[in-house]
Amino acid sequence: MPRPLLLPVGLTGVILAAEFATLADATAEFAGPLVVALALAGLLLSPPWRRRPGAWAYGAAAGVYALFAAPFVLSGGATFGGYIKLDDTATYLAMTDRVMEHGRSMAGLAPSTYEATLATTLAIGYPTGSLMPLGLGHQLLAYDSAWLYQPYLTFLAALLALALYAVLARVVPSRPLRAAAAFVAAQPAILYGYALWGGIKELLGALLLALIAALLPWTLERGRSARAALPLAAACAALVCVLSLPGAVWLGVPLLVAAAVVVRRPSPQLLMRAGWFVGGLTVLAIPAYVAAVDWIPRIGDFGKETNLGNLIGPLSFWQLFGIWPVGDFRVRPDHQALPAYVLIAIVIAAAAAGIWWAWRLRAWELLAYAATCIVGCLAFVGVSSPWVGGKTLAMASPALLAAALAGCAAVLAHRRAVEATILALAIVLGVLWSNVDQYHDVWLAPRGQLHELETIGHRFPGQGPALMTTYEPYGARHFLRRLDPEGASELRRRFDYLTDGTMLDKTESADIDRIRLDQLLVYRTLVLRRGPAASRPPSVYHLVWSGRYYEVWQRPEPAPATIVQHVPLGSVSQAAAVPSCAAVKALPGRTIATATRPEAIPLGSPPPRGAQTVRVTVPVDGVYTAWIAGDWFGSASISIDGRTVGSRREDLNWPGLYSDLGSAPLAAGGHDVTIRYETGGLHPGSGGRPFAFGPAALSLVDAREPVATLPRARAGSVCGQRLDWVEALR
């Protein structure tokens, strides 16, 4: 087997071993030990140190790894891409958590957003092949899979470069040039874009298509043993485990080619190999058959023209050719249309030349690869939904770039070095231009926010059910899974009605005072977002943990008092307000409970760029926190009287949610507050456009916990006070 294919083929073995282990609840947790045992056996039977490493092939892989890792490494912390743009990653993390511990079993799960997420994916046969290496990483390293997610995608991109190096072996004989070609072909703009928003199946699908094309001619060569068919069988089985059984359509061209060769020269050795291939594929794809029983009846929705998923509209077929110079691959390059389409035309012409050159040289790897991807695009893009069509274009796009770079090699082989260089530079610059734009527009997950949720999940397991009133799919579907979490605006099992009788729509958030009391008291634990206008939960809840972004409140079992009536006050911008004296006196029960919250000092919306200063009056001496709501990609800071309180770069929040920039002591009286926002630079995501930036505010740091109680006879004493809420207790 070609040396560059050892790692990609090894990955297929990892996927299949884990798929078999996770077929049953009883064996799921043995997936990690099984893979380790198989790896050790492979090292003993065929030590890799006996082979010389292919320096150029692995150099290309290292370059691709660095390129795909750059937006995340340069952010300065463990994170992943596509936050807010796409929440599928949260679902994949939920599936990975469950399948690696219990397979597809739903036994023992309490009603929750986590359980509902799995019931609509894992329990109905959603393919899990792409999740296996990620789950194994979590099992073996005991590191949360959220922080392994992007390194895993980056590793897949590096393996794609190795497979492309093997595909191009006959058409680009020079190893340095072949490594350069594999480096470029592994990063088409659409695939790079999918990688930056968590496209796990797209990257693994692209890798497996290239691997199958590289293995096919090698398997059919004369003199191979019967067992030589097993790597190809494993790659094909892994593809259907990743894409589900209907994904076998991609195997149509390779299998037809193999069948034609067997029919044309049916030697005993070749027939034996064919038998091993068919038997191996039949057995190794068993996990896909098992999942297909529940999954195939439900795939009809994926063929609907209205199924856009998180796309803005159907993607352009021109994106198949690897160049698309926009920050977000979902939109058209309107401002750069002419140069973009000129470069695409160059890729098309070069790809045609490359396919012709491969035919001349009998380079079956590239021919099989190009034919597989072109036929696959025609099959899926034409009849499936835009969502599936986009994935198809992403998986197939490396083949067209590889063919275009083979065309450059053809020109070079005809002693046209200058023309070949110009052609290659045009393709390379087009690809890099596209990906630099996407680097600047990447949406990085807020590590600080999610790490707090991870901490809460580890600290309070089994202390559910828990409620999140803000939209945060990574909390409700993954980090808080051991608290039986419900997201009030997420897929859920309880209704969580608001005080006005409505429910939150997806992506919406609400203050805790907007949740109806009888709906709220079902939850033992509340995981709430901090903010200048955040209300205190009802009196039976007590603060047990607080971080920069989140607080955890819990009620004892059983509750020490019964809340007869809870009267929330305040508004969206202020947690507290002065209640009606008549309403307070009319409360039932023997005891009145009240909570207070300081007044939020509004600062207005931050400037789109530059600085703006506002004059505010602080009512009392104290320590004040500076807040900014929404999402931003540059560097935002707040200064008071010339002293910086705090700053943060690229902190993404859903609309209406605040980030704590820092606190500072202030004396009562007037102060000049400056909000500064700087854009641009080389930082990843620095070119992104905020969706909902602001407002900003100051708030006094207060003791959130105390609740004042008094006899109902003294209810009139609270008249005229600013209160968060008033309760009647029994």
Would you mind describing this structure in some detail?
- The termini are far apart.
- Helix 16 crosses helix 17.
- 45% of the residues lie in helices and 15% in strands.
- By secondary structure, the protein is an alpha+beta fold.
- It contains 23 helices and 17 strands.
- It is elongated and about 100 Å long.
- Helix 21 links the parallel strand 1 and strand 2.
- It has a five-stranded mixed sheet with strand order 2-1-3-5-4, with helices on one face. It has a four-stranded antiparallel sheet with strand order 6-17-7-16, with no helix packed on it.
Average pLDDT score: 93
Look at the helices and sheets and give the structural class. alpha+beta
Poorly predicted tracts of residues:
none
Approximate shape: elongated
- Helical element count? 23
The spatial strand order of the largest sheet comes to: 2-1-3-5-4
Strand content: 5-15%
Question: Could you give a short account of the major beta sheet?
Answer: 5 strands, mixed
Helix residue percentage: 40-55%
| Distance from first to last alpha carbon | 77 Å
Q: Roughly how many Å is the radius of gyration? A: 29 Å
Total count of strands: 17
Topology, pairings included?
Elements: H1 6-21, H2 25-28, H3 31-45, H4 55-73, H5 88-102, H6 113-119, H7 132-141, H8 145-167, H9 175-185, H10 189-195, H11 200-220, H12 230-243, H13 252-264, H14 268-284, H15 286-295, H16 337-361, H17 364-383, H18 386-413, H19 417-440, H20 447-459, E1 466-468, H21 473-479, E2 485-487, H22 517-520, E3 525-529, E4 542-546, E5 550-554, E6 563-568, H23 581-585, E7 591-595, E8 601-604, E9 610-618, E10 622-630, E11 632-640, E12 643-651, E13 658-666, E14 669-678, E15 693-700, E16 708-711, E17 725-729
Parallel strand pairs: 1-2, 1-3
Antiparallel strand pairs: 3-5, 4-5, 6-17, 7-16, 7-17, 8-15, 9-14, 10-13, 10-15, 11-12, 11-14
Helix pairs in contact: 1-3, 1-12, 3-7, 4-8, 4-9, 5-7, 5-21, 7-8, 8-9, 8-11, 9-18, 11-12, 11-17, 11-18, 12-14, 13-17, 16-17, 16-18, 16-19, 17-18, 18-19
